[in-house]
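Supplementary Note 3. Input sequence used for the single-chain structure prediction.
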Amino acid sequence: MISYTRANDDRDLMGIISLQRQNLPQSLDAEEMQSQGFVTVVHEMEVLKKMNAVEKSVIARDKETVIAYLLAMTTASRYDLPVLVPMFDVFEDILFRGKVLSSYNYIVVGQVCVDKRYRGQGVLDECYSFYVSCFKEKYDFAVTEIATSNVRSIRAHRRIGFETIHEYTAPDHEKWSIVVLDWKDL
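The predicted structure, written as C-alpha cells, is reproduced below.
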C-alpha cells in the first residue's frame, strides 16, 4: 500500500538520503543513467533538516520505506547547497510571463527520485499531485532545473505539465533546462 505524505521526521529524511544515494551517477552505470535517469545533488542530513523546517518535502512510502520524494526548497535555502547557487542566479535573469522569475513567490522542486522498482506505475504523478495540493495556495508555481542529459526526467516532467522556459550551461559545462509547473495551467 503506497501512501503519499510529507517528510515529518529524521526517519523520513534518512529514507530520502538512502534513495538519493542509490541514484547518484557514481552508483549507476552509463546505460542505467541513460535509460532510468539520475539525481545530481548530494544532500546531507543537516541541509535536508533545514530545508524541511521551512517546507516539508513530499514523499511516497510503501509501508515504512520511502520509495519516492520531491524535495521542497525555497529561496531561504539558496546558499545551503553551493552547487545550486548558479540555478538561483539564473532565476534573476529569466523572464516568465513578462516578469523576472525571481520576482515571483515560487517553490523549487529541489530534487525528484522514484525507487527503480516503482517506476512506470504512476508514483511520480501521484507525488506531484500531492505536491501541488500542498503548495498551490502558498506559491505561484513550482520551478526546477533538469540536466538535459537526463532524458527520462525531462520527458516525465513534460508529461506532468512542466514547461521549459530557459536553458543554460553551468560553469562545469553541464547543460540545464529550467522548467516551470504553473498551477494556473492545471
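The chain has a mean pLDDT of 94. The chain has one domain: 2-185.
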